[in-house]
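anyone seen this seq b4? input:
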Amino acid sequence: MPLVNLAAAGVSIRVVRLGNPKRDRDYLGSFSFDDQSYDEAFADFVENATTENELAEFLEYPFERKPNGKFGKVTRFSNGDWPVFYSAADEQTIVAEIKHWFAKDIANGEASPTRRRYYRRVAINCAGDAIDVRPNLGTWPDLISDDYAFCHRIGAEIAGGPVSALLAPSARLDGGTTIPVFKRRALNDPELTGTVVFTPSSRDGQVDIVTSTTRA
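predicted toks r here
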């Protein structure tokens, strides 16, 4: 039990998540786009405000079981058998995390190397007990390893107990803090704060992701 000697403390912090409510995902999935029409459609997407009900769904979705019986795919702190709402302490960290996975999807042929990705940026209040594992990175290097076995042990422990969240080191931004939240009750007051656009560009065989931000 990795966390047995670590104390939880109450937190109330504003966290950041990038993603899209279900209506936006359904809208995006209803078209077959070339790159130009894709960008034109997203110009409408950016202007199309997200409602309070859709923001509530934005919070609920990670905590809902999917048709395959899982809460989602395998991620750093879950094997899919328990829910995790991934967020970060600041925009810089969450952007670094998504840039990593976008570049990986392009390298694996799972995303277009010429097509932008657009995400809603939402700020959410996270209030509850949390355990800060950042000071343990020196002795627990697997907190940022690409082998998730150790983090899954931590995730299972948190998911099965009263603690709501972790303060964890970012694997993609040195000094960054990610905030995986395991209990829906810890999240409230979502606010749409803008849209973040990820634009891929390939140089010398490397994929660079350039980001731009619009405000709500």
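The chain is about 25% helix and 30% strand. Helices lie at 22-29, 35-47, 52-60, 91-107, 149-159. kinda curious what u guys think
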